[in-house]
Amino acid sequence: MADDHTMFRQGIASVLADYGDMEIVGQTDNDEGAVELARRTRPDVVLMQVQMPIFRAKVNLRRMREVSDPAPKVVIVTMIEDPRHVRELMDLGASAYIVKSASAEHLVAAVRAAILDPKSEHAVVGMPLGMLEAAQEGPQGVLSARELEILLLAARGLSNRQIGASLHVTEGTVKRHLANTYEKMGVGSRGQAIRKALYEEWITIQDITDDPDEP
Q1: For residue 135, which of 23, 86, 203, 206 is within the disulfide window of CB 3.0 to 4.6 Å?
Q2: What is the per-residue DSSP string for the chain?
Q3: Of the candidates 101, 88, 7, 8, the residue with the CA atom closest to the CA atom of residue 52
Q4: Residue pair 47/32 in contact by the 8 Å Cβ criterion
Q5: Which residue, among 97, 117, 109, 98, has the nearest Cα to 15 in the 3D structure?
Q6: In angstroms, how far is the first alpha carbon of the chain from the final one?
Q7: What percent of the chain has pLDDT over 70?
Q8: Second-level CATH architecture of 145-209
Q9: In the chain, what are the domain boundaries?
């Protein structure tokens, strides 16, 4: 479990313990700590809080895939009710996206589904109906996790070649992703895309200035 509110973690641990067939093997107060904790404890499921800005959580969600084989299922627990982030995090492999206003029974069901069917690619989403409907709309106007990642690196001033080297993809692949991004955002240039992403809070100034690889 990874959440910065000790009382919330204790409450969820108590709820899960009441079901008798689940064990909390570790707790931490942030998503970076969750990756290291998962390496040591090799859990079946990770309950991970996501807060704004979410770029660091996306990086750690990708890292979670590499901590063991098979990788633990990740259940996102968050206050963020934004369909853009649902799609992004699901694209990165999250098994469930549960808002904190959902019932404890819904959370338990998501954890149980991940445990009982570990090879399933199906996702569990617990959120208000309007948010769910928005998240299920077509891809038009919604950036993929990779597109958002490239846009962030562009916002940090990296060239297409530098972005490609950072992500281990070709420069042509970066250009194609940026072209798709411009079309989805309805803009015609890198600068316009960055300005709109900042205005829409898809990325933040903190995202641009922070280095997720720094300790």
Answers
A1: 86
A2: -B-S-HHHHHHHHHHHHHTSS------BSSHHHHHHHHHHH--SEEEEEE-SS-HHHHHHHHHHTTSSSSPPEEEEEES---HHHHHHHHHTT-SEEEETTS-HHHHHHHHHHHHH-TT----EEES-HHHHHHHTS-STT---HHHHHHHHHHHTT--HHHHHHHHT--HHHHHHHHHHHHHHHT-SSHHHHHHHHHHTTSS-HHHHH--TT--
A3: 88
A4: no
A5: 109
A6: 21
A7: 73
A8: Orthogonal Bundle (1.10)
A9: 6-135, 145-209
The C-alpha atoms of residue 13 and residue 22 are separated, in whole angstroms, by 9
Check if the beta carbon of residue 89 is closer than 8 Å to that of residue 61: yes
Instruction: Classify domain 6-135 at the CATH topology level.
Output: Rossmann fold (3.40.50)
- When pLDDT is averaged across residues 93-114 and rounded to a whole number, the result is 75
| Burial class of residue 118 (count of CB atoms within 10 Å of its CB; 0-12, 13-18, 19+) | middle
Task: Please answer whether residues 151 and 180 qualify as being in contact, where contact means their C-beta atoms are separated by less than 8 angstroms.
Answer: no
The rounded distance, in Å, linking the Cα atoms of 146 and 180 is: 11
How are strands ordered across the β-sheet holding 45-50? 45-50, 73-78, 96-99, 124-126
pLDDT tens-digit series, residues 165-214:
988 889 999 999 999 889 888 888 998 888 888 876 677 776 677 654 44
Retrieve residue 126's tokens: 């617990």
- Tell me the sheet residues that pair with 73: 45
C-alpha of 6 from chain center:
21
